[in-house]
Amino acid sequence: MTASFKRNRARLMGGAATSLVLLLAGTGIAQAQDASDASNVDEVVVTGIRAGIESSIAVKKKESSIVEVVSAEDIGKLPDVSIAESIGRLPGLALQRLDGRGQVLSIRGLAPDFSTALLNGREQVTTGNNRGVEFDQYPSELLSSVVIYKTPDAALLGQGLAGTADMRTVRPLEYGKRAIAAGYRYEWNDIGALAAGSTDKGQRYSVSYIDQYFDGKLGLALGYSHINTPYQSERWNAWGYPTVDLGDNRYGQGPSNARTPLPGYSEEAGKLVLGGAKPYVMSGELERDSVMGTLEIKPDARATHTIDVFYSEFSDVQNLKGIEFPLYWSGATLQPTTTVDNGMITSGTFSGVGAVVRNDMNTRDATLASVGWNTTAQMGDHWTAVVDLSLSKVERTDMVLESYSGTGRPGVGATDTLGFQMMGDGRAMFSSSIDYADPSLIKLTMPQGWGSNAALPGGQDGYLNMPSTEDKLWAARVSAKRELENDWFDSVEFGLNLTDRSKTLDNEEWFLKVAGHPASVPIPASAITGTTSLDFIGIDGMVSYDPMALINSGVYSRVANPNADVAVKSWRVDEKVSVAFVKADIDAMVGSIPMTGNIGLQMVNTDQSSDALGAIGSPGPGGSIYTRPLSGGDEYTNFLPSLNLTFALPNEQLLRFGAARTMARARMDQMRASVQFNFDQGKATSTNLANSPWSANGGNPELKPWLADSIDVSYEKYFGRKAYVSAAAYYKDLKTYVYDRSELYDFSGVAYSGPTAPTLHQGYLTTPQNGEGGKIYGLELTASVPFGMFAEILDGFGVSGSASFTESSIKPNPGDPATPIPGLSDTVINTTIYYEKNGFEARVSDRYRSKFLGEVSGFGNGRTQRFVDAESVIDAQIGYRFGEGPMEGLSVLFQANNLTDEPFTTYQNSDSRQVTDFQRYGRTYMLGVNYRF
Fold it and tell me: What are 756-769's pLDDT values in tens digits?
């Protein structure tokens, strides 16, 4: 799908959403009023799609803040296969895919780090290295709703700067009846099992139970969910796109000040060319088991005790098979027979290519536990007291395993003559002179000699990285609420919330050395799993094997990587936060117009600290590693006022206004105390600070939070419980932002290597620093409308859609003002068209977001930022729900995700031709059955 087609479709959908809002607001009142009057005569029980929509509308209308809501259509049935995809369709929210599935969210143009996630109102820790919640940890089958707070109130704890996502489980006493539901889905991917030895078929099932006992004094809700989901991708990854340099003797000649092209290279000089590529196929398998339990005890009308438990075990295994082709950035030579188009070499041939055959494996094992206890008690006629205690904890271990093979060590193995043709989607098609599927030719080795040192004279034969994370948060809240009787305020609430959070990252890395090193060793037959096709890049096949089998059998031995850059990757960050708050609920009349809302203040005191290492050096002849413990921190207090007002206009119209100061604490990897020191022996005698032998980079444990002052206005028109339209505008003034800056640093006492002592002991340390912020503002248009409002013949049809438009003046990279803030798509459009009647259900959903700067996995599994191209993801579902009779309670469904096989594409240097990642995931199909007793 071309970018121009996506943009045109975005304009059409945005225009349609705008027109629909204006049409309904202006002309749909009479029909809606008639429908509302009719509903008062006979109660109509709705189920399925419309039940979820109507429940969401009811919650949104009732809230005092500006919120967006997604509700379950039935017990254990949110409208999408993951909670991330459900909330990613809400107005003002944009979803980023990872490995083909939605995982992290941007709210109103701000990256995931600016938002927080709650579970039943309690702040949750994260499986990643930072604060952005990975929502695929939470099964949609066990949640009843998710409320996105776009404007906060003072009693909303753990709030984010951009917004707050509160995931909610069912309250059994409020639900008020027994329910037992079970579901099963079988799934498969249409591009098949790409990696040899993998599968493309999976399943998921869940069961939920809700009941009440002892005349409504005890309520119990239990749920269990299991998924075993395979996923596939074809992945193109480019090293980069250098220009052909005449200073390189392969392409230029003559004195340094007057270089001229070698014969045949005059057209290629200065043109972009592929520096190297790492294409591969990936077959993954995600397995997750989750349990949820809620126990409510209400011994009398004045007190309720609630215990919430959530536990999830998460395992993700990825098998990656590919070939890394070092090209211009290697000893290979570009032949002069090329095609040049608009400043880029689009086809040609490299000779002397020492390809590295890759059989890699990534795994992630994580456990997430959340426990909460709440007691709410009425104290007399006017007072209510609340005590809430909770624990949220994550333990995660990753393994990133790389295994290399090829024809032999540098200068020994055969090299490839590799033709390439750049395609329109950014990947290349290759023609090779080597059969990479021949196990007698391909051996365990390192064809490029990467990582060569005294312990590994032939280079590393693989690499193993095993970071582990623990994130733990204790919280305690006490509050009291006093009902008031006056013309302005309905009640006042005040309280104190204390949290203690600790997050650690422990990193261990090893070089892998094959038995018999530096010789190249045949691949053991017992480890070979077959041949994997790489036809998406023109390579018929490659030999595939199990890299873990090589470790477990002793073919590989581990050699610890003691380099300084490894030592500084481990850190610990602690945060102790106390929040005192007061909130007054408003219930007044402004003339003849009812006004409700709240006004309040939070006083947030933060005591943060970090412990880590400073390190310098590398092993080898004359080299050594020097480390020293580092620590730091800061304590500060912020005041966060908030105001929410809702004016109830005639004919179910609401005008909302919100104003608040919000904050988001900095990323934890930015707050680490780690510092990597560097010393250049060649500059040891320099006395010029601009040419100092010393430099360093690291984190900043004294980093202050982001702060923003925001104003929100929203107009909402409701048509009973069935429909609504809204238009919202927002403006955020970020007082601060975080930038990398260099400051003078005293390196006295830091060890150096080499024979010459440094003259200078000062240099520059680059760390994240608080700097100037900027503005972000936008417009959101939303409509959720059943077409039966307009004509009886259209009963059953409906649409739910939104269009969001965002602009920003924030410059996150002062050195490159054109760089946008991460996570900002200037246009986001979500549309769902549905039909539901007489048990039949069908819907088609489209989720579009324009290009943005996203965070993806980079070199060495580190996180890096790249431009992500615009995408439009279409999902569909069809099903039937049986009514009265022996099959009552049974429903069947068929789902198709990513119907158009939309790729995930990133590029660099703001040049969409310089594609870094092109990932194709295929379509996923699910066939399922649900039964409610």
Answer: 899 999 999 999 99
